[in-house]
Design a protein that fits this description.
The protein has helices at about 35-40, 40-70, 80-110, 120-135, 135-145, 150-165, 175-190, 190-195, 205-235, 250-275; strands at about 70-75, 75-80. By secondary structure, it is mainly α. Among the domains are: about 35-70; about 95-235, Triger factor/SurA peptide-binding fold (Orthogonal Bundle), CATH 1.10.4030. Strands 1-2 form a two-stranded antiparallel sheet. Helix 4 (about 120-135) crosses helix 5 (about 135-145) and helix 7 crosses helix 9.
């Protein structure tokens, strides 16, 4: 057979095998302190950062002094809290310390007589005050006007209720006393009801007796409270560092703790004896 014309024999070119490229491993040297010290750029950078950090700390320290240890700062000049409290102490120190002493004496007397005040009793008093002022919003405004918080009011009410519970059983009175009080002050206490009466008509005592007795007892308690607190102050060991110089005695704190423990033990033994009888 003859070969067809125009056909060419195609031969495949031989390809050489691919060569593998060598793998390159990059190693990072762990920085050492010796290396950092030898590197000037790194050393100066760290020095600048350290100086900046110190400057920020000092700046915050100055702000802290200006803000937390100052009452006001005027053109960069601060008025210290020490000056502020000194003026307050001069003006109100003795009266405030006297009030704090009396409040603590009431707490201790209530604890000794096992008298307590419940949250419900306190809330009832707060609700009564709010009602007299015209609502809780008015109560909040009144507290704000006197720079007081609800916690301040709550604590004051607790002290008053404790004193009332201690003193009320000691108040001696007769029905004639309450009636005489009603006849003298009924037109003031019950002004709205009295204004609606016809000429010559009087308020009925029995109708208003309960409220009259409550107000009468409160007045008698307030009168007795001054004498009672004075007696407590006389018998108590009081160290008033506001009006007097503080006293420092050898083992004074230890002796005071031991004395309190002994007093408490004696009071507990007396209660047990009374219970047994």
């Amino acid at each position: 057979m003859s070969k067809a014309k125009g056909t060419k024999k195609v031969t495949k070119a031989k390809t050489s095998p691919k060569k593998k490229l060598p793998s390159i491993k990059i190693k990072f040297k762990k920085p050492t302190w010796a290396g950092i010290k030898e590197n000037k750029i790194t050393r100066y950078s760290l020095l600048v950062l350290a100086i900046l950090a110190c400057f920020v700390i000092v700046d915050f320290g100055v702000q802290y002094l200006n803000n937390d240890y100052s009452v006001v700062v005027i053109n960069g000049i601060r008025i210290s809290q020490k000056q502020y409290y000194y003026r307050l102490d001069q003006a109100y120190g003795s009266s405030i310390s006297a009030q704090l002493i009396q409040e603590e004496l009431v707490r201790q007397a209530a604890l000794e007589e096992n008298i307590a005040v419940s949250d419900e009793e306190v809330q009832e008093e707060i609700d009564g005050i709010a009602e007299q002022l015209g609502g809780t919003d008015q109560l909040d405004l009144s507290l704000e006007a006197y720079n007081l918080t609800m916690e301040d009011l709550t604590e004051q009410i607790k002290i008053d209720l404790l004193a009332n519970k201690i003193l009320e059983p000691t108040i001696e009175y007769t029905e004639e006393d309450v009636m005489a009080f009603f006849e003298q002050y009924s037109n003031v206490i019950f002004a709205e009801e009295a204004s609606s009466l016809e000429e010559g008509e009087l308020l009925d005592y029995e109708t208003f007796r309960e409220k009259t007795l409550e107000i009468y007892l409160q007045q008698e308690i307030e009168s007795a409270k001054t004498t009672w607190l004075s007696e407590l102050e006389i018998t108590a060991k009081i160290q008033n560092n506001v009006t007097d110089r503080p006293e420092y005695k050898i083992l004074g704190a230890t002796r005071n703790i031991v004395s309190n423990i002994m007093d408490e033990a004696n009071s507990n033994s007396e209660v047990e004896e009374v219970t047994e009888e």
